[in-house]
Amino acid sequence: xxxxxxxxxxxFESSLKVHKQLGPGLLESVYEECLYYELKxxxxxxx
Length: 47
Description:
Blueprint: H1 2-22, H2 28-40
Helix pairs in contact: 1-2
């Protein structure tokens, strides 16, 4: 359960960062690409 919480925290924080930077109104594909970029920078690969 601990690892799932860590993953959820990383995904949530990355999503929030993208939303704060881009704001509302863009295509979903733009948010997806930016979230992908943010998640690649995290330590998810190590979990």
